[in-house]
Write a structure and sequence with these properties.
By secondary structure, the protein is mainly beta. 0% of the residues lie in helices and 58% in strands.
């Protein structure tokens, strides 16, 4: 099983930057995909960015050119560097992992979420 611990959320002004981190821990065979999703009040949770173990990334159109996702496979950690933040980026950001257990079964795990607020 995998536990996800998020950090890095906070309050920033428009145009500012934040870096989110999410570390996976526990017993597992591998974490094949990690990513970030976000949910604003009254809205559905939406994909922000994902990255697989080989390094291939996928971004929502709304964050391309501003956000960068990366991972450290040795540390089972995923990062989200957020630049040029806009008020519409305000949301709770959730870390996600798709991992393979020791018995070679695939599971999904979510972090508790971290608040990102962009406001003057």
């Amino acid at each position: 099983q995998v536990q996800l611990v998020e950090s890095g959320g906070g309050l920033v002004k428009p145009g500012g930057s934040l870096r989110l981190s999410c570390a996976g821990s526990g017993s597992f065979f591998s974490i094949n995909q990690m990513g970030w999703y976000r949910q604003a009040p009254g809205k559905e949770r939406e994909l922000v960015a994902t990255i697989i173990i080989g390094g291939t990334t996928n971004y929502a159109d709304s964050v391309k050119g501003r956000f960068t996702i990366s991972r450290d496979n040795a540390k089972n950690t995923v990062y989200l560097q957020m630049n040029s933040l806009k008020p519409e980026d305000t949301a709770v950001y959730y870390c996600h992992a798709r991992y393979v257990s020791s018995l070679r079964r695939e599971y999904d795990r979510w972090g508790q979420g971290t608040q990102v607020t962009v406001s003057s």
